[in-house]
């Protein structure tokens, strides 16, 4: 990439004339219309604000787009959907005196600015183009950035471009191998595959886990008030009971003993507030506290950052939400400390300004996620935000305010109770001073609420009941979205902007299912992971991927050459790729069954497809017969017979059968492939808007939806399941299942008159 020169304007720039008309003073280019609208309010009529709608160009979708021999030179193409936007940007840039590129302050934002600059250079080569960056969309931040414009950061662009090229190499070189060996339309990703590996390895741990029996003995005790103690030692040895007979032997001895207080320890523990949110911690806590997916969290945070309509003005409510930094500006901290003194008692304000440090230098250019104004409290915004944005803003505000509040203090009591040869332990905690927890209460404190009576050493306590309970060790827990993000972050895999797309891709590719907020790898996901790790274990592992993230940071800092990174990676990667024998791998994956093809008599083999395993004739391509199957309790293959109907094929007179394809259920002729007649699957229920039938379909992402058979004349479509029930208000034949509660109560809605019923 050549050096990018930016010509700065003189103090008194000359006015330019275009066809007798004075040019506009300034043009600012951002990514989104909402961001554009918010900024416009702060800059007024001297500025025109245009939105690029994200990236305007990228590597081509249907080509590799990288010239490996020519220093990995990328071939960028204009997004066809952005042609009109780009033409408008060029036109307005020619009519403006100064152009400011104000995309987000991260690698992707820098790349967007660079691409726009490269296009504008061809149209206005002599004009100055400025880069402005800000961490929040506020009047002061934006005006300050315009006073101090900078150059497009070439190192940051190189880091983004290196990541993009690395991902393209993996995607375009490995994915076709998956298509040939396993099934069409699969994908491999440099970071995505490592995330899949973590999920599959956890699943293997769970499957291999053998529960171990253990027993716990505890005592319900009383000294004025009741409390519970757990047996920790017996005969001065740590207790470990593996069966009932061992538990019974000790239990019988302890039942007859006196329970005497042997020792009491009081400890005061200080709990400090956490730093303000970074991207990963926001995703984790929004999942834990609010039940949000990572995708939902980032979508709402983007809205809060770009601007929300408050009293007829668009206001950016939070700072930039893609960040690794825990740093807070002095100005923001000063305002926050003022708020705390006004809102709470003085004792809740930390005596000194609390400063949090970042792990590395690359993060220090950013700030943590915080409100743009501490005084914009959640209650002042309640009338302007819907439920989910309000809850997320409140969470961000609470976490930020807590950073400058006093520490919480907890009193912890530990009591040791002697019973013959047994030693029991009881614990309790009480909050002495809530401190920052008054604002941010989402802290888990061990034994909180377990109150201990006033005890003295040598006090005898009453044994109310001695208990023995059988337990079994549990396998490691499956990852939730929050747990996976935490794992990726702790291992240094990916960056703030990548966590949500990684998870979405794994779900969209059907490599994993998200059931009750936990990840379950599918058979397809396990097979893809198994193959990729077997062939590319040196590349798709935690340490290598984390090390590559460090190299990208070094490129951004200007301490590592990006071409050298690509050359080393590609040389080793392509060597492994060339040694893969596609035919042999496909044969290894295909398993012969004892089922014979009813059309040609050849053995049927088990193959993989996008939707899982199926039976295919080994005589392919001469015979294209396929069957769905399942494994019975003994692991034997059983064919799932196609559901036959009484309908006759209008083309050949054969019977129609119900099949399941890429886009859901459909009817096909039983004489396929001689006859290729098909028709959509109908639910048998009427469209609420016309006389058509409701058809069940599936989207490209595998989600079921319902549409009218009269499409495109009738464009009715819904995700709600149709129910054979007349609407009591308008009389339409079909109502739709809107939701089902945990206790099975259904909410039905009429999509014609909006009548709702509870059943």
Outline the structure in words.
The two termini are about 65 Å apart. By secondary structure, the chain is α+β, with helices and mostly antiparallel strands. It has 18 helices and 39 strands. About 30% of the residues are buried. The radius of gyration is 32 Å and the shape is globular. The strands form twelve sheets. Strands 11-12-18-17-14-19 form a six-stranded antiparallel β-barrel. Helix 2 crosses helix 3, helix 6 crosses helix 15 and helix 8 runs antiparallel to helix 13. The longest helix has 28 residues.
Tell me the layout of helices and strands.
Elements: E1 17-18, E2 21-22, E3 24-30, H1 33-43, E4 47-51, E5 57-58, E6 66-67, E7 73-74, E8 77-78, H2 83-94, E9 96-101, H3 107-123, E10 129-131, H4 139-147, H5 154-181, H6 192-208, E11 213-223, E12 225-234, E13 237-238, H7 244-254, E14 259-271, H8 279-290, H9 294-306, E15 308-310, E16 313-315, H10 330-343, H11 378-381, H12 387-402, E17 408-419, E18 422-433, E19 460-472, H13 481-491, H14 499-508, E20 512-515, E21 518-521, H15 523-536, H16 542-557, H17 562-578, H18 582-589, E22 591-596, E23 603-609, E24 612-617, E25 626-627, E26 629-631, E27 637-639, E28 643-648, E29 655-661, E30 664-669, E31 678-680, E32 682-686, E33 693-698, E34 704-708, E35 717-718, E36 721-724, E37 734-740, E38 746-749, E39 756-758
Parallel strand pairs: 3-4, 3-9, 9-10
Antiparallel strand pairs: 1-2, 5-8, 6-7, 11-12, 11-19, 12-13, 12-18, 14-17, 14-19, 15-16, 17-18, 20-21, 22-23, 23-24, 24-25, 26-27, 28-29, 29-30, 30-31, 32-33, 33-34, 34-35, 36-37, 37-38, 38-39
